[in-house]
# Entry
Amino acid sequence: MAKPRSPEVPITEAMRQRILARTAAWLGASGVTQIALFGAGRHSRPIIRQPWLAHGIRVALVLDDNPRLPSIGGVPVVRPGDAPLPDGIGAIVISSECYEAQLFERASRLFGSAGIPIVRLYTSDDAAYEASATLDRLRAIDGLSDADARWLVDNRGERHDATLPMLPPARTELHLRRYELAADIMARIGAKAAADLACGTGYGSSLLSPPHAPRRYVGVDIDARTIDYARARHAGTDRTFHCCSAVATPIEPSSVDLVASFETIEHIDATSALVDEYARVLKPRGVLVVSTPNKLGPTPFHVHDFGSIEFLAALEDRFEVVEVLGQLPLDEVYDADLPPGMWRIELAAARSGINLGPATAPATKPDFLLAVARKRGGGAQPILVPAAPDEVIIETRHGHIRFFCPNEATRWRARTLLTKEPETLDWIDRFEPGDVFWDVGASTGPYMLYAAAAGVASKIIAFDPSPWNWWVLAEQIRRSGLGERVLAYPLAIADRAVAAPLHMRHALCGGAGSSFGEPIGEFGERFTPVFQQAAVGVPIDELIERFGMPFPNRLKIDVDGAEERIIGGATRTLRDSRLRSVVIELDSARKDLIERVTRVMTDAGLRFVAKRHAEFVDSTENASIFNFEFSR
# Structure
């Protein structure tokens, strides 16, 4: 199969129907009664019966190099060469709007000697892009030599210049929009320098280093003629080009803010060497924007055939992937913050390889995958992409954290992550590799997500009995792709196993001050709940001993008044030397409570370390509320 070129001009639905009907009528009039479709993608399913049946033709077979289904609409799907064509096949019809030229070449090689007509539905280029017309147009462009014009036309399948009118707009836009995405990210993070690894003719420099916002740009490509063209056409004061392999560039270490590498990774046998080079040239806060075809099937030019699972796996040793995007050669705007034809894919979906399509059509297969990733290590990272309408992004020392925030209360919890309890963040930052962290009274999960971003804890378990908070917790985990590391349970932690009411001060997402069993608040006061929710309470000891939950090495308790009941159901856990530290929020004005809690901790072998809260709390009604830390 020939190396894939950029998809052709999208065809309107009305035009498609006319072309199909015309082709079916012509085949029927020629006496064809059975055909095979070549290509089992999106294009084939809607034409598996019509318009062929209307003209006395039956689709007897679908041919595909990488069959995903055994049949489509009752018609078998087979790999060419696995079985001979059935008798009676009168024509092979290429069934692909985007890759018709490549499939036509493949079918011609496989079946050309059999004397069976191979029929294309759509033309590869319209008359305006035929070689002679394109040459005339390119010669007329100031500064483009006859030699360069001929070279571009002869090699435009691989070495086109998307800033020139040499290919249909859909092809050039597909490529330019990737650079547009990278340029948007550069502006967002204040980048001053970019590297383009496998830059081709260098046209991406027009977006990554535009005249109105000059930035240092360096492009590398292994083809000497291509680099000669790039230097002649696109070089400048801020733009340089080098002829070399993308895995061994002359770019200085830690010298660029962003690396763009489009349609490259699938060509390089030593994937890890390429990814290492991405990381080598990037600054500690560096960002990678990389793309690849999505499960295109084997080609003689690609040494890898990446799907989303393999694509992420190739990057994640050196990079933290923060966004995965799908791309189609369409002008449809799926996301107002992204170039046309692109949409965000949830990380959990990308890691599972399912539901990669846009929200309007989740089963759609993207033709291309893009990843936006940040170099691991190097401290705080910039925000790479804007938040969705129901999200808040917070920058931390461990990179940015994306919070699902369905209301103002959850937005407040996200926005105050760094200021509300800095002592809790400092405590989390002292975790050791492999620790198991239990977050009792997790609310909507700000500290759960912070611990996950810190990347040290091997397992994080969050508990909150509020149905609204638990829903947000579950959605946080799903959107962040943390399902293997983070678990959330809609349970109250208590001193005994019991079903009892959860007395709620606020029946909303992000609400606090609830009390299980008795309506008693964090200051020891009784309150009148606005809502009572049925709930189940389970002691910590029982969760571990009866249900086999991972033992906590770090335990955070924030339950607004039920602290003694929590630790009363955790006596054996507290005495276990595997529990290294506990942070528990208490009202320091309740001296008797502090004495009782401290005695329990001391008897269990945990010493008091410190009580802390943020300075601003001193001027609030919660001035007596502190986080007490106990450590073994």
